[in-house]
Structures are given as structure tokens and as C-alpha cells.
Amino acid sequence: MSIVVKQSESLLSESKKYLAGGVASTLRASMKPTPLFAEAGSGPRVRDVDGNEYIDYLLAYGPLILGHAHPSLAEGLNDALKRGVTFGLQHTGEIELAKLLTEILPCADRVALSGSGTEAVMLALRLSRAYTGRTKVIRFHGHFHGWSDAIFTSFPSADMKQSETASAGAVPPGTGGQSENSLQDIILLPWNDIDALEETLRREKDSIAAVITEPIMCNNGCIHPMPGYLERMRELTEEFGIVMIMDEVITGFRLGLGGAHGKLGLKPDLVTIGKAMGGGIAISGVAGKADIMAMIEKGTVGHLGTLNGNVAATSAALATLRELAKDGGSVYGKMERTADLLVQGINSLFEKHRVPGLVNQAGPVFHVMFTSEEKVENFDAFNKRDAAKYSRFAELMLAEGVLIRPSGLWYVSAVHGEDEVRATLTSVDRVLANL
Ligand code: PMP
User: Fold this and answer.
1) Pocket flag, ligand 1, residue 365 (CB < 6 Å)
2) Ligand 1, from 26, 28, 58, 145: best to mutate by most atoms within 8 Å of Cβ?
3) What CATH number should be reported for the domain whose range is 71-327?
4) One GO molecular-function annotation for this sequence (predicted)?
């Protein structure tokens, strides 16, 4: 089966004349057979400019937790359009949203609003350094925290510093133009290794401002923390007065209304949130402890942004979060069941076709890998997967009418249901037979 993407191909050529690289975010260039141009989306489906329709598990790299064009989101945005989308003045939507966030996120005494996950992480790092008066930050191999100079270590796997590859004469892909100095305070450690963390913390505790972690390593393998790992991280950071930042840009409002930390019953000092929060409209934030967030009120840490907390973004976030909170958040059970059916189905099809592969799942997010490893529980094991084969799989799935991210991460929305699961598994069956 092949797919006609002539319009997308020709638009890409046109785009390249005006838009640097032809795509607005570098990651999008990797889609095969070509970066697709979208025409419109509805619920769990999206249509491209060539008229191909896909069941959508890309979901705009995560934000579309309510699927495409959800009526509640449209209503919220319409109100904003009528009132004015932004003022640069205060408005009550900001209070409503911040209040709601303090109610649903267990660690949130106060909230600050920004536009992207990258900005939220940038702010969280500044708050941590200002609060502790220290400079170093521990982050982990395989985690992604946006592309600011302060933390971006390579593209797309975020696993190297320039200094580590300099001897081989290589620059980590995508890091050109980034000052090596900007990363000198970053300590990169393997994740899920409590000894490595404890030893580093004990040795350098007086210079470490923060430890930043994804609660589940969603970006590379959907790898869960080992039992007790994050709890021990919490204990140690507390003991040494180090700020624990949980980057919940993916997991926030995805694994549950209270994010991963709500599910785990853990209180980091700060969390960063974004993606699903706005249902597809640009909004992000930092939430956390009052005394750390007070660095903003005191004016020690500037928190700036022309469009921070704008009416369109806060309306979108309020509409999305209220929709997710309906019926006691029952939509989370639904999303998880849909994802469970997909994961069970994909696993059985791996067996049926004798394809070595596995799926790591965190509720409505899961990572599909072609690998002979029995388990993928750390970044090294993740890196043994056959990424090229998966990229081919994604291309063949596209021809079947199923849109998945070429890297392996699938998102399920509140509006994906059994019809989509059935059609998707039929496609996986056919594609695995021909792979
Ligand atoms: N943190 C995490 C965990 C992410 O997955 C991402 C984006 N994939 C970011 C931060 C950066 O967010 P944004 O793309 O909105 O800047």
C-alpha cells in the first residue's frame, strides 16, 4: 500500500523558500515519506492536504489530550476572541486558572504562567538557583527538558554534552551555536541509579541548586522509575536543601489530573507543566512551594513574557482542565483502557509475527520498540532498539491511515475509542506481516 502525498511534498518545497528548513520545529522534518501538511482535524482523526485521513496518535506531540477541535475548547477560545485575546493587563482568567492549578496539583502553593515547556524549565532553574544561592544542576541521560541553552544537551535524544564528544571531533546534533559555557553547571547522570545520585549529591551538595527529572522517562522509552528511586531522590534533596524539579510537561494532566507526582504521592518542590494543559494552545507554567515561588514576588527572579497568561491561553487551559475534571476525572480511566487495548494488541501481534519488540506504557502514553531486549529499564537498553526499523514501521502505518511519531511514542486522547483501536490493530497486523 502506498500513499499519495504530492500536495505535502510540493508545499514543503514552497515552504523551504520562506520558512527556514521548511518546518517550524526541527523534529518535524524527520517524518517519512515527507513532513505532512495538515488540512483539518476532528476528534481522534486528522486529514492532510492530499485528502488522506489518519487516526492520530501523534496528537501534536502530546497537547491534544481532548483530540482535535473539541467543542469545549472551541467555546473557551470563542469567548476569548470576543473579549480580546490579550491585554497586557491583569484579568480574572489568570486567577481562576492559577487557583484551579493549586487545587489539582498537590505540590502547588503558587503558580507562574509562561508559553512553552522550555520557558517553564528555564524559570524553574532560575528559581532554584536564586533560592539556594548555588549553581549546579543535576539532570539525567535520556531526559528532555526543552531547548534552552541552560539545559539542552543534544538532539533528539538529549544524552551528551559538547565537551563529551569534542574529543571525537563531533558536535551533538542540533547543538551548533550553543555555548559550551552555558552547560558547565550541568551534571549529567544515569537515571534510575540511586547510588550514582547519592554519591554525587553527597560529594557536591553545597554547590547543587536542583535535581531535575522527568517522573517517567517518557521522551526515551517511557521508562518508569525503579521502586523507591524518586522517593529516595526526594529524601536526599530535602536533606541537602536541594530543589527537586519534576518536569511534568508530558505527564502533567496526562497520567491523572494531579500529574505523575499526584499519582506517586510525592511532593517535588517545583513542577513544570505545559503540553496537555492548554489542549493545543501555547501555555505552560511552573508550580510549587510558596517560599521558592516567592523569589518572583520579591523581584529576585524576573518572570517575563509579553503573552504570559493571555486570555486565549488561560481560556484554553481552563476549558481543557475542566473537561478533564468532569465526572471525577473518569476520562483518565477511559484513556488508560484504550491504551491498554492497543498495547495488549500490539504485544500479541509482535508474538504472532515473531517480531522482537516490546511496549513500555505509562497510562495513555506508550513507547513501541523493536528490540531483542527482554526489558527496557534504562537509557542504554533503550538505545539498543532498532530505530530505523521503527521509522519504516511508522511510514507503513501512515500508508494504512495511522499517524504515529517516527520515534516510537504514542499518545491516546480522551476521544480515541474502540473503533480506532480495532482499525489500528488491523493495520499493525498488516504492517508487521510486510515489514
Ligand atoms: N520538558 C519535557 C519533558 C518535554 O517533553 C518537552 C517537549 N517535548 C519540554 C520540556 C519542552 O517543551 P516545549 O516544546 O513546549 O518547549
Assistant:
1) no
2) 145
3) 3.40.640.10
4) transaminase activity
Is the CB of residue 146 below 6 angstroms from any atom belonging to ligand 1?
A: yes
Architecture per CATH, 6-69+330-434: Alpha-Beta Complex (3.90)
User: How many Cα neighbours within 13 Å face the side chain of 221?
Assistant: 28
Q: Which protein residue has the closest C-alpha to ligand 1 atom 5?
A: 250
Query: What are the boundaries of each domain within the chain?
Result: 6-69+330-434, 71-327
Determine the distance separating the centroid of ligand 1 and the alpha carbon of 404, expressed in angstroms. 18
Element containing residue 314 per DSSP (H, E):
helix 311-329
Distance between CA atoms of residues 145 and 139, nearest Å? 9
> Tens of pLDDT along 285-323?
999 999 999 999 999 999 999 999 999 999 999 999 999
User: Any residues with CB less than 8 A from the CB of 282 and at least 6 apart, and which?
Assistant: 115, 116, 313
Is the CB–ligand 1 distance for residue 250 below 6 Å? yes
Q: Nearest residue CA, atom 10 of ligand 1?
A: 145
The dihedrals phi and psi of 18, each to the nearest 5 degrees, come to -125, -35
Q: Can you tell me the distance from the alpha carbon of 363 to that of 158, in angstroms, rounded to the nearest whole number?
A: 24
Phi and psi of 417, rounded to 5°?
-140, -165
Residues 306 and 96: their CA atoms lie apart, in Å, by 20
As given in the structure block, the three cell numbers for residue 265 are: 504521592
pTM: 0.96
What ipTM goes with this model?
0.99
Centre of ligand 1 to C-alpha 274, Å, is 8
Does any ligand 1 atom lie closer than 6 A to the CB of residue 144? yes
Residue among 256, 305, 332 nearest 123 (CA):
305
State in Å: Cα 117 to ligand 1 middle: 5
What distance in Å separates the CA atoms of residue 121 and residue 271, rounded to the nearest whole number? Answer: 9
- Confidence at 180, pLDDT banded by 50, 70, 90: confident
Cβ-Cβ contacts under 8 Å for 221 (sequence gap 6 or more)? 142, 360, 367, 369, 376, 379, 381, 382, 385, 408
